[in-house]
Every structure is written in structure tokens, then in C-alpha cells.
Amino acid sequence: MTAALATDGLGHRYGRSRWALRACTLEVPAGRVVALVGPNGSGKSTLLHTAAGLLAPSEGSVHVAGAAPARSLARIGFVAQDAPLWPRLRVAEILEAGRHLNAHFDTPFARGRISQLEIAPRARVQTLSGGQRAQLALTMVLAKHPDLLLLDEPLANLDPVARREFLASMFAACTDSGATVVFSSHVVAELERICDHLIVLRDGRVSLVGDIDDLRESHRIVSGPQGWPEPRATPVICARDAAGRTTALLRCDPAAALGPGLDETLPTFDELVLGYLEQPSPDHQESVR
Question: Are 225 and 145 contained in the same domain?
Fold first, then answer.
């Protein structure tokens, strides 16, 4: 089956020397809800903008359902962090603009969703709450019935209640349509509830990618006497010392025997993500597949 999103050696450079994304190779299977995480400046927005066709690759390639983004615009929905909309227009006028700008815009769906969300059609965008603006932006892209939905930190400016409502309605809509979702956010706890696939970016490169259940099975949280393990002998992602013991996140064979005197458990989603975010950054770290 063709991947919903695939990149091969993808890189994007700003100016002559600042690489925001480099050697990015990954495949996202169709139908997944993907958590895209990484520190600020790790390349998340650059990856999403390149996948949406808003930035051209400086090297490598990106494909959406087997085609370049420029040939797949009707199949892509993109919501930026600040949900940019014309502030002086009314909600109904925004929907009308969507109908004119998109050949397959589903106006009845859009109007029905706005009504369900109790957003007044005659309200001007500038009078809407942050949650309502985010929901309006999401409605605009969902009305295209995209195969791939790219969300660039849409929760950043929302309060906890608005975040929960946005996630619930987004997840329901995408489950009904079967769309693939790539969701960038710093709110790890909320990603865990809806995502089944994970991409971790560090310093513009892929540190980890795969189905979350598979990744958890291939890692262990291991606690032992302070000073273990020997870095060269054990695939340590990150480690901490406390109360005379060392606790580490390891990537290892699930059947591997790690040695006596060690306590081990499967990592939670939080522990897996934070372990890779805390991982030391060698000058030329290879991507972990």
C-alpha cells in the first residue's frame, strides 16, 4: 500500500547554511494518527510545511500518496498554529470563500459542523475565541475531505477545555473519514490519547519513527546500581542518577536478558517521548529506525 506521507533524504535549508531539516527519511502508513514531537527548532513546522507544498525541498523528496505535494493539494489539509483566517470576514463569508477556492469543498458539511459547534455564522472572525477560530480553521480543511491532514501545533493558544474539545471533534471527524493525521504538539499527554504512530525530530533529523505499540515493545525502562550500564555495551537512549541508582531508557531486543539486579518495565508513552527528547545529541547521530 502506498504510504500516506513518505520522505527520502528530505532537507530544507533557510539561507545559505541554516538547515532546519536534514536527511529526513520516513513513511507514514495510511489511516494513522501520528504524533510529531520535538524541541523548538527541531524541524517539525518545516516538515509539515514541506509536506503541504508550502516549502520546496532543498534536497531529497517528499510524496503524498505517491505524488509530489504540488500535485496532491486537493488531498491535503493544513492547519497552521495561529489558524490564519481573514479577521474582518464573517464565518459564513469564510465558508463561502472556501467553496470558491476549493473545487470539492463540501459546503453542507461545513455549515453543519459550524452549527453543531454553535458558532454563529454572522460572527466576525476577530470576535471568536481561540478555540472557535481553531475549530473554524479545522472545518475549512475537513470540508475538503483530505486524505492527509497536517496540524502544526493547533493547541498552542488554547485553554485546556478548548484543547480537549478540539481533539475530540478532530479525532471523531478523521475516524469517520479515514484520513491520515500528522499532529504536531508539545502537549504529550493529549497526544497519547489519540495517536498510534510517532515521529520524534531532534536537530532537524529523525530520532525515532514507528507505531507506538511496536516502539514501546522494543524499549525498556531499566533501573540498577548507580554507574551502570557501560555506554559502549548497551543501547542507552538516556539515563539519570538518583538515590544511588541509575535509571535508563534502552532500545533492545524484547527477549534480551539485561543482567541480574536490574528492574525493568515497558516505557509509557511519556517516558518514550521524553527519553528521546532528553537524548544527548552527538555531532552526527544516525537516525534510529
Answer: no
